[in-house]
Amino acid sequence: MLCAQYNYLLADRFNWYEQNRSPVNACPLVCYLPELRNNPDYYSQKKTLPHLKKTHPWYSEIHSQVLQDVVKRVKVTFDRFLLGDSNGKRSGRPRFKARNRYRTFTYPQMKDGCWRGNLINLPKLGKIKVVLHRPIPDGFKIKTASVTKKADGYYLTLSLEDKTVPEIKPDFNPDKIAGIDMGLKEFFTTSAGVVVNIPQHYRKAQKRLRVLQKRVSRRKKGSNGRLKAVKQLGRQHKKVADKRKDFHFKTANWLLSKYDVVAHEDLNVKGLARTQLAKSVLDAGWSSFLSILTNKAENAGLLVIAVSAHNTTQDCSNCGEKVPKKLFMRWHNCPYCGCSLDRDHNAAINVRNRAEGHPVLKAQRLLSNSRIGCEAYTIPVLRLV
């Protein structure tokens, strides 16, 4: 029902857009003159919900705020198509969703006391048992709840608020800095020469996925057997995605436990995913890993810096001279200074060197030096007293 309402509201916006986007002085000679009406926006479409429950009484079974959240999703989707996001980047034309593509609904507000033990009280649905991923801390208030249907069952996502938690301010050691060079032979190489191997979860699961995909293609469309085969294939893909996500989180934790500042190349992953290396790039999941790394660094008060990837592999990390090399050449030998080391290790050092001139690091070093000077001045006074 939510999917049908989403498609209806999106179609209403498209109808207005197609009929009213042409200005009066540029109207073609032969055209359809629609009935004049205001642009459907968030508030005007929300006002149609009471009438919807009168004409379609079964929509009364859905919580009112869940229906209002559908209107909000349509607004966000259409605004990104016309206006773009905060960076001005516009997305493609919104598509109507099939029934199996609309997987999440959200409760924007949750009442106090909705959580009891391992039960959550969702309006219009009642008390539902939840298998906890981790216990909810004391003092935290549940703000929103989202229910998502995935390949292996339903998942509940909660957003929590605790006003007593202070805002984390960056307080890091600018000298504990590392550069990482992302790769496909190894997942990444640090500027200290540490290599993290790439697990290649998708390639290892390809044999099983091939069997399940054949099973889907051989089933008759619309049959229960095909639906069962599709579910098996979806569970296998989710298993691969969960393994990759677990690897990303553990690797990010390890990296941030050793360094306060991590620098990486500003890669165009979307462009690389259109090349012949697409399968390997997407299997590595660079974008997902860098996003996780950045978020965990912010929560820990640490710093992740993206630097230009131009010639990080070609330039010598010791003397700065350009040493051209092709992709199959995995060793860096500089004829100018005699520097000889692994190609990825050389690139990681270049990434670290470029990050050291970052203005945030310079400011932090100045702050650290001022603290040291202040302590050196006050300690003798305290001894005299």
UniProtKB/TrEMBL annotation:
Write out the entry's keywords from A to Z.
DNA recombination, DNA-binding, Transposition
Pfam entry (one): OrfB_IS605
User: Where does the Cas12f1-like TNB domain start and stop, copy by copy?
Assistant: 286-351
Q: InterPro entries under this entry? A: Cas12f1-like_TNB, Transposase
UniProt key word Glycosyltransferase:
no
NCBIfam families in the cross-refs: guided_TnpB
User: This protein is called what?
Assistant: Transposase, IS605 family
